[in-house]
Amino acid sequence: MLTSDHKPEAGCLKVSSKSSPASVAGAIAGMIKDGVSVEMQAVGAGAVNQAVKAIAISRGFLSPIGIEIACVPSFADIVIDGEYRTAIRFTVEPHYIRGTAPFVDDTNPSTALH
């Protein structure tokens, strides 16, 4: 089993079984539109379910504007209240289909990718 025990970055979305998939999807879509890859972390079957639903919903937000996404799942060993747990970490990145990448005007800072 491949694991990662690095601490999640400050921007890591922690998804619980009580998270609203639509709200998480909005956060994913907003970050992807800004050119930022999204890291999500879920512990437990319910949390993983909500995370996967959020990824699917976010694709529905992004696909009509020409942005597809790719999701890379991985395991992460984390510590919660002094106990080691295994989390599922999802890295969501933009995946542009040939000819659909957004136009970037290097002379205009508002369109530059970050």
Can you give a write-up of this model?
There is one protein chain. With 114 residues, this protein is of the alpha/beta class. It has a single domain, classed as Translation Initiation Factor IF3, CATH 3.30.110. It is built from two helices and five strands. It has helices at residues 21-33, 45-62; strands at residues 3-4, 13-15, 38-42, 68-80, 83-95. The chain has a five-stranded mixed sheet. β4 (68-80) and β5 (83-95) form a beta hairpin. α1 packs across α2 (45-62). The longest helix is centred in the middle third of the chain and has 18 residues, at 45-62. The chain is elongated, with a radius of gyration of 15 Å. The mean pLDDT is 85.
Q: Which strand order spans the largest sheet, edge to edge or round the barrel?
A: 1-4-5-3-2
How many distinct domains? 1
Mean pLDDT: 85
Shape: elongated
CATH topology: Translation Initiation Factor IF3
Oligomer: single chain
- CATH hierarchy class name: Alpha Beta
Distance between the amino and carboxyl termini? 33 Å
Question: Share of helix among residues?
Answer: 25-40%
Task: Tell me the number of strands.
Answer: 5
Low-confidence stretches: none
SSE order in H/E notation? EEHEHEE
Number of helices: 2
CATH architecture descriptor text = 2-Layer Sandwich
- Percentage beta strand: 25-35%
Describe the sheet with the most strands.
Answer: 5 strands, mixed
